Amino acid sequence: MSSTFQNMPPHSRIWIYQSNRKLNEKEVAEIEIKAENFIDQWTSHGKTMNACIEIFYKLFIVVAVDEQTAPASGCGIDKSVHFIQQLEKYFSITLLNRTLVAYKKNDKLYTCSLAEFEKLIESGSITENTIVFNNLINTKAEMESNWEIALKQSWHSKFLPHKNILHRKRTLLDSPGISFQQ
User: Fold this and answer.
1) Is residue 165 part of a domain?
2) How far apart are CA 104 and CA 132, in angstroms?
3) Does 108 share its domain with 80?
4) Does residue 164 surpass a pLDDT of 90?
5) Which of 146, 170, 161 is nearest to 14 (CA)?
6) Cβ(111)–Cβ(101) below 8 Å
7) Domain extent at residue 81
């Protein structure tokens, strides 16, 4: 059963797939048609899913399922991943690369690899207040409150220089056989 993201309940489970490039209008329209066809046929253990697939910023494909109406079982999830893989092939895009980061700067959206992201932080081009997209969230409610957040509030904060220094100090202090005299 196809729904819209807006109509999905807050507890709906979500998966966010970030594209390696921005989609054009024609691609968005085609994906929307393919997504609706997929959702209309998507089942888990023979039960129709209350689900939707929506595109945000022409960059993110979000799959949402109300698991209170029909839980997304392993085979149901496999079907959705297979659908995403089909989109990758058809549109020559990458959606399953979890090492891509998306962020906003001057109200523009950018993507880069984690390695590039670290370099941008080191150079000062990206700061702790830069808005990043936390694609690891699990529910619609989390997406509405914690998807677009300041880097310092996200898992991305581990790339901030002061976080790395604190982590290295803790690791040294916790290492067996090393003692520090005061």
Assistant:
1) yes
2) 6
3) no
4) no
5) 146
6) yes
7) 5-91
- Per-residue pLDDT for 103 more than 90? yes
Torsion angle of C-alpha atoms 68, 69, 73, 76, degrees rounded to 10:
-140
Q: Looking at the domain assignment, is residue 168 inside a domain?
A: yes
Is the model more confident about 45 or about 121?
Answer: 121
Rounded average pLDDT over 66-89 = 86
Judgement on whether residues 41 and 107 belong to the same structural domain of the protein: no
Number of other residues whose CB lies within 10 A of the CB of residue 77: 15
Using only the alpha carbons of the chain, give its radius of gyration: 20
The structural domain count of the chain equals 2
Looking at the fold, whether 57 and 121 belong to one and the same domain comes out as no
Distance CA 71, CA 66 (A): 7
> Tokens representing 68?
């209170």
For residue 1, what pLDDT is reported?
Answer: 55
Tell me which amino acid residue 46 is: G
How far apart are alpha carbons 80 and 115 in whole angstroms? 29
